[in-house]
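Exercise (ungraded).
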Amino acid sequence: MDQNSAPISPKVLTEFVGVMDKLKAIIETENEFLERGLPATLLATTKRKSYLSREYGALSTELIDQAVEHVMADPALSVKLVAAGAELQAMSEENRQLLERALAATKRRVDSVMDAVRASADALPDDEFTFPAPR
Amino acid sequence: MDGSTNQATFDKSALKLLQGRVACKLAEIHQMLAPGISAPVTPELLQAHADRHMASLSPAAQERLRLQALVAFAELQRLSAEMTRHLDALTVEMNKVARHRRAAVAYRQVAPVAAYGAARL
């Protein structure tokens, strides 16, 4: 959402819109990486996403407490916030689907690696595991 | 769940449910602002329909609608905030599994050697 497009006056609104934009940007980046099959790259954005999610939650509460009347008094602003909320919802839905897919694929890979480890241990000759007889 | 913590454990069904509830709340607000117009529409189109709808109402009905929208908007924000926390927990879970994978790959490289060495002891 373009911060200059609406007459936002309370500070909490400006901050809320800013955090929402950053959160959407991070989810968009994650979705691009996940679509390219690079789930490991999420390590770089996780901390930032956690921080922004916390901020978004806190600012949502502040927005409801302090500025919801202001938002509702400005029809253009409320429509823009609802549209931005819809965009965030759609992006997060895509994010969830991609993450769940990547999660399942990565778990399968871990299982296959561990199966290979077990198979190679089983393939060692039996006498390698025989303890020498006491003298 | 309060807003001070982000340590929501990942719950696949809870996140899916929350995303559904956010979508329903958005649809409800759309219908409130511009009845008959189904999402997704551009903000400009929604705005134009909302203006027309508001202008067609009496001042008392406008005030009632404004209050309804206020409650729905507050609920939307609360649900969205909860949704983002659950989404974050899913990302954390993904990273945990990615680390397990790296550890498993590293273990695979050393495991046969370690097993052989142990057998020689």
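Further reading is listed at the end of the chapter. For now, observe: The CA atoms of residues 112 and 118 of chain B lie 10 Å apart. Residues 1-6 of chain B have pLDDT under 50 and may be disordered.
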